[in-house]
Amino acid sequence: MIYSVRMRAAQGAAHEDGGRHISGAERLVSRDQIGALTQSMVERAFSHSRGQTDFINITVEAVATENIRRLELLPMTTVAAADVSAGRAAAKAALAAAGVKSPAADAGMERLLALKDSMRGAMLICGVTGQRLDGTDGRGIRVSRMDIDDQNRFAAWLEKRGFTGIHIREAVVLATKVAAASGVIAELCWSDDPEYTAGYVASASGYMRFPQLKPYGVMQGGRLFFIRPETNITELMHYLETQPVLVVTPEEAE
Fold first, then answer.
1. DSSP secondary structure string, 123-163?
2. Domain range enclosing 56
3. Pathway listed for it (predicted)?
4. 236 and 172 in one domain?
5. What pLDDT digit, counting tens, does each position of 242-252 carry?
6. Neighbouring C-beta atoms of residue 230, cutoff 10 Å
7. Among 89, 106, 118, 184, which lies 20 to 30 A Cα-Cα from 214?
8. Rounded to whole angstroms, how far apart are CA atoms 80 and 242?
């Protein structure tokens, strides 16, 4: 049996009661890994650079192995840019190449820039008009129940290609699940960690990392999923929130 272990940490109150989002984490693990994992999640919540948490929720839920979907990790590249402005321009170009229309990319970027704080979930944005479609206000859609199939192999694969740090390890797993969703054109994200300036654009064709998508010290961050106008929102949300996914590291012979 595999277990979904999910952590959410907030400041001031629980998220549902208006608490400020501090940290979150997702893993799919065996029973004997749960104890050590939950301890590390608690330590992570208490040491996050976004601030001191006073609410931590950890959920452990059994997942039937026959329900797990396996996906191959997205190809990964880094796109250098001179500064944040250039990084955002390059990200918009990547969205356009994936099929997001220019008005939608502009509107989506403006929504991220207008955030007063981070969102713990994602906004669903029409990839043609830029209209927000999820109706969840400040909560957003939380992508859940995903992990890499082999942590050690994944870490070695990333290190060999110059990708290090927990942010990118978690982001590319999430992006791989999202890119496989029916109706999703592309994703745009930058972190709410004030010490982490990178972000990415991801689609079925790959994960493009941009080292500078926000200024250092900024706590506002979030993610957008650009979707096709005809997408069934209910089915998409069900997949993102409940479908268990294990991401498989590509073979080395590439």
1. EEEETTT--B-S--TTS-B---SEEES-HHHHHHHHHHTT-
2. 2-67
3. Metabolic intermediate metabolism; pimeloyl-CoA biosynthesis; pimeloyl-CoA from pimelate: step 1/1
4. yes
5. 999 999 999 76
6. 6
7. 184
8. 35
